[in-house]
Amino acid sequence: MSSEQTGASPSRPDASQPSGPRTLAEDLRSRDDAALSALLRARPDLLSPVPGDLTQLATRAGTRASVVRALERLDRFALQTAEALAVVPEGPAGSAGAEPRSTPTTEELLSALLPGDEAAARLPHALAELRARALVWGPPQRPRLVRTARELLTSPSPTGLGPTLAEAVAAAGSAKPSPSRLQEALAHAGLPATHDPVSALTALAALFGDPERMSALLARAPEGAESVLRKLEWGPPYGAVDLTAPPPPVVWLLERALLVPTGADAAGGTGTASGSVVLPREVALHLRGGRAHRELEPTAPPVEVARSHATATVDGTAAGQAMTALTTVEELLASWETEPPPVLRAGGLGVRDLKRTAVALDVPEPAAAFWIELAYAAGLVASDGEVDETFAPTPAYDEWLRAAPAERWARLVTAWYRATRVAGLVGERDARDARKRALAPLGPGLDRSPAPEVRHRTLALLAALDAGSVPDRAALRERLRWERPLRGVRAGRAAADGPDEDSSGPDLPTRLMEWALDEAETLGVTGRGALASFVRPLVEAAALGEAAPGEPPAEATGDAVARALTPHLPEPLSEVLLQADLTAVAPGPLERELSAFLGVLADVESKGGATVYRFTPDSVRRALDAGRTAADLHAFLAAHSSTPVPQPLTYLIDDVARRHGQVRVGAASSYVRCDDDTLLAEILADRRAAPLRLRLLAPTVLASQAPPDQLLARLREMGHAPAAESAEGDVLLSRADARRTPPRTPPEPVTDGPPAPDATLLAAAVRAIRAGDHAATLPHKPTAPAAPPPGGGLPRTVMAETLATMQSATLTGTPVWIGYVNADGAASQRVIAPVKVEGGFVTAYDHTADEVRTYPLHRITGVAEVGEG
């Protein structure tokens, strides 16, 4: 463990020399509670579990996994600042005042590596951000990068810079120049000889860092030498060369240490003459003019506006899409409640069922996959868990149907906003599966943890534009890349590392953005590409820090979105227009009862601005099978028609009703009963009835070996209208029961790391860390033990007094003496500093055990104030 992370310090410097913090732990110790809270909020992984003191916090902040996660949260310029800081020479910790005045400060070196007025203006902010995330520590004039971050950003360096001259020579191995060769390099460079290799390297590095002398040296180079250097200028800094017979320009560069042999055999150690050379960092910086990056991006690229629409047009279009979304989800689940699709053995929905669902919804298969995943994210559909497992609506679907349209849509949007399952991946091959099977809707492998954050950032950028503005997608893509440049890099590395780490390629953030925009338009979050005004509460909730990015509070935010959407939705209609061609036209959304009734009585012929329903003998029979009588149908249509009921529709209902139930089907295996023996004779003589194997039992009864459901279906195909009957002769309603799963909870998003802590947890954690650090840094000297409670033995108090004392100690931060009985019945006395009392447990720093612990309140026998020794 490095001394940078721990509190252990080297020998104390001279008191006359100003000194900064010597370790990251000392730096954190000097920060106030607000700064520590900001650190824990920005890096919530440091809280799992709560560190015992600031030394533990510093150690955890320097671990590789935590540093990688912190670097991924940086924007482009903050990351470029960290990359530049990684190549700045690192002086001794805490020696800010011990260096000569001529030595440039780290800030001055950074200004040279990051030139330009814009970079200079934003550099302090970038350094402050790195310091707030504990990636940088030390005095302001000498900021130091955390060692782990330096290692990550220099091996290899994203800037394309190689090692320093001294590092290159030290790593040369068998090709390391001898002391005499270094003296020859000094002579070739026109420098005086030195007494040792260290001073020789120092003299050469000083030459390479002096622009005037370096320019003069390169002016004397033979033709082709500078072009060799230019090939390595922006990286990678390594090049292959035949070291046994190098070309003259390379010989000239090697003689002056402008190129250094690495000793690495480019042929993989096969004994060939090929080798490699490296361009020292000092030489590359001179060639670059002192710049660390080819392209410096200190400011975020603007999101350009492609076109604009009136706000009313945007909201109207989005509201129309919102109503379409509700209708589509209802149609999806209405079909699945009567014909639930099976669950594949490997999980998910089969290809045929996806195609069947797409045809039923009249949408492409990718769109069908989106609606299916949306219903699943909202908790409206799930697996029933039966032996023959199928997908069916959940009981929450019935509750959702009873809600107002705006509330139903808000629930869908909040579920989409925070979901980590990505429907756009459906159909792609799962690289984590050995058989490379295609990813299926509702199946495993669709979770991508960055998805909620990408949706949040995309919508936030749309919200920052003027109302009605449609962003240019290319500009939006560049802006998101600037905000999180390492997201795509990690995804690409993960995909290259192996199938177990696949993240859908290096361009996953871009694909997530494209999917987010397309899904937002389909769902009604945007209208004609611009953000709808009624969605802004959803975006603002996360922007204000009320929840983690991509995870707005469902109830409060959903209610706000529903209230904002309601004025934009049309009032549900209670009437339809019945026409003589046996159709009904609904010019807008219908009331729930009317829509459900028409869905049974008629077939949807077309959808759009208006919905057209068609009445057929089959649809009327379907309503009669559901228990409706002809009188019910006439009355309902008369009550909900804006015009008189057309005569053809009346005749159709009466004709179907007259024949409905005239033929009865029961179990014999099955039988057909009818009072009209002529009709039975007609059925028996029909060739289409041959598969039923009918035989006449009586003038009014036919027997069949087919099951009743097959007998019913065949007779209907033959043009009859049979009705099923019970063993007592009563007519049975043949409508299929609506399937429902047992109660199910919506799927939990697979978050990328621990969730963001709330203010209460942050305050308690900071208090616990401070208490532990105070105990750890106290001088260890003999002291009298704290006085036990009066009377000796364990403290004894009633539960109400114990709870009140604990809560008071939590607010004041004072330690208390407790009696505690563990699970084995062993009693002990402890001195604790309570930091949180919640849910029947107290979290406290235990001075006896020197760590943070959680105690059940029912095991605390009593509490007393700590007395003086």
UniProtKB/TrEMBL annotation:
The keyword DNA-binding applies. Residues 801-863 form the WYL domain. Pfam families: Helicase_C_3, WYL. InterPro entries: WYL_dom (IPR026881), XPB/Ssl2_N (IPR032830). It comes from the Bacteria. Residues 1-30, 723-758 are annotated as: Disordered. GO terms for molecular function: DNA binding. Keywords: DNA-binding. Signal peptide: none annotated. Residues 1-20 have a biased composition (Polar residues). The keyword DNA-binding applies. Residues 576-697 form the Helicase XPB/Ssl2 N-terminal domain. Residues 743-757 have a biased composition (Pro residues). This is DNA-binding protein. It comes from Streptomyces reniochalinae.
